[in-house]
Design a protein that fits this description.
The protein is α/β, with parallel strands linked by helices. The protein is built from 10 helices and 12 strands. The model has no long low-confidence stretch (mean pLDDT about 95). Bound molecules: zinc ion.
């Protein structure tokens, strides 16, 4: 029988499940995929039951060769343990790998979503041909994962890659981690929206195109609308997007000096902002590295989109 890989993506606001099959030439394709958006207040029991249901639908009675799991929150990958979920209650210290091994009677490998996506992009996406990459996701938060010499680098206590909480402005806005000026608070989607609201209030004669998009209601501002207004020529919106991209690029400059990676891959919703965004990130990174490192790294957009955790889960097991 052909190898059949079951992959699970516990995404916090949605759950997804896919079966991948190999074509015999080392390539894989999605054979079937199901996702389900979560209700407003899901708990761990809901997530787990939903995932088993989705798995039943995609497996159709077949037994998987192995199961790969991407979890949206901190995990102890080496022990197969979920530490917690920032979105879903009840995941604290759950031995997810052991439970799934019992459920499917086969090998299970799990990791957090950023590490899984980093490995997925390395094998199947924008990092093909690279052995050392940093993957960053910029969406409602900023997360990251390292692949060094072809393997995920977890760090001493499995928290490596937390670029979102690298401080780049000690006087900057307060962060959920208790400090100020973390990358996340300057570069993620909600940070872009927050900054836009403040600037619109402070500069009443600017931001005409952005104001039209939100019908003058600041509560409707999103990073997506700020970017649309920027692309349509709104100067204020353009400055806000540039500030966010520059903050990220500045942080990446520090990373490049420290780790000299081959490639940096940016995914998540904000990475859809367009070529201007990436140009600003690259320029800011380049300005913040020593001359010898200036042209050593590509900063590129991720290729796997919202399927990155599933391809990552596949990369964990193959
Ligand atoms: Zn922080």
């Amino acid at each position: 029988m052909d190898s059949l890989y079951l992959t699970l993506d516990f995404g916090g606001t949605k759950n997804a499940c896919a079966v991948f099959v190999a074509n015999g030439h080392g390539e894989f394709r999605v054979e079937s995929l199901e996702r389900r958006a979560s209700p407003p207040d899901p708990d761990a029991k809901y997530d787990y039951a939903t995932m088993l249901d989705l798995a039943k639908n995609v497996l159709r009675g077949r037994t998987p060769t192995a199961v790969g799991v991407s979890f949206g929150g901190p995990v102890r990958a080496s022990r197969g343990l979920v530490v917690l979920s920032h979105h879903v209650a009840g995941w604290e210290n759950i031995p997810l790998r052991a439970r799934l091994e019992g459920e499917f009677a086969t090998r299970v490998v799990m990791d957090n979503d950023a590490n899984a996506a980093a490995l997925g992009e390395t094998h199947f996406g924008a990092g093909r041909s690279c052995s050392s990459i940093l993957y960053i996701t910029v969406s409602t938060g900023v997360g990251g994962g390292w692949v060094l010499n072809g393997e995920i680098y977890h760090g001493a206590t499995e928290l490596a890659g937390e670029l979102g909480h690298v401080v780049i402005d000690p006087q900057g806005p307060p962060c959920v981690c208790g400090r100020r000026g973390c990358v996340e608070q300057l570069a993620c989607g909600p940070a872009i929206a927050r900054r836009a609201r403040a600037r619109l209030a402070r500069e009443p004669s600017r931001g005409k195109l952005l104001r039209a998009r939100i019908r003058d209601d600041p509560s409707l501002v999103t990073a997506l609308l700020v970017n649309e207004a920027a692309l349509a020529g709104d100067e204020l919106a353009r400055e806000i997007m540039q500030d966010a991209a520059s903050a990220l690029g500045f942080a990446l400059g520090n990373v490049i000096c420290l780790m000299n990676p081959q490639r940096i891959i940016i995914g998540g919703g904000v990475s859809n902002a367009g070529p201007h965004y990436f140009e600003t990130v690259r320029t800011a990174a380049r300005a913040n590295v020593m001359p010898q490192l200036r042209d050593t790294v590509d900063i590129v957009r991720a290729e796997l989109g919202d399927q990155a955790p599933l391809w990552g889960a596949l990369a964990l097991v193959v």
